[in-house]
Amino acid sequence: MSGIPALHSHFLERIRDAVAADVRFSALLAGGSYVHGGFDAYSDLDVVIVVDDAHYDEAMASRMAFARSLGDLLGAFTGEHVGEPRLLICLYGPPLLHVDLKFVTATDLDRRVERPAILYARDRAAVEARLDAAHIHWPERSSQWFEDRAWIWLHYAAAKWGRGELFDALGMLAFFRDQVLGPMLHRRASRPQRGVRRAEALGMDDDGRLSATVASHDTASVRGAILAAAALYLDLRADAVPERITPRMPQVLIDYIDGSGRR
């Protein structure tokens, strides 16, 4: 498989051979950076294994054994934490390689967040037709979704800062960048809302306003980062103003941080 690092290419070939040799499986698809671009030596492998309906329960029960058969499996766990129990998240090596194995049925292909590449299929024409007819939609968040959450999350960060729980405040700021600021910056550039993925390579922080929300473990630094996050959010919100604006923000947040709103 050309165009990707040898380590990844060889492992994909190994998965393809294993899928082709297993009568339970009908196709192997690849997503993520493989289809979005930017694939490099640090990329994960995101693959989807299509399982025949009659064998699905068995395949799910034995998927850890299948993962072990692919190579030197160091560890693996299922993806309930991201709402995806069909996913098996694996680490192989050395050399270290992160591989996501998702086991689905053919009907699961009818709704996708991306158009995957077909690496193998027993009936390629049937899989192509199914993907051609699929509803493919990236889960974009609305302006109102951001507005309903932004000020509550920023207040949480401010409350932890006020109490001196700086690690907790730093964690919330990182969460806020990933859930709010990053997606809104991607929206501004008319790209799919993908958190802060490839922020540097895509020039999402050319003006330094996103990096201003990254604080050190210092009271003054965290305070400044919270205010910077609020200011950047307001700027990005202007791109698509939500129908319901949270009243008295950001002033009441600023008052809270300055002490007039804190108990």
UniProtKB/TrEMBL annotation:
It comes from the Bacteria. Coiled coil: none annotated. Transmembrane segments: none annotated. It holds the Pfam family NTP_transf_2. Residues 13-56 form the Polymerase nucleotidyl transferase domain. This is Nucleotidyltransferase domain-containing protein.
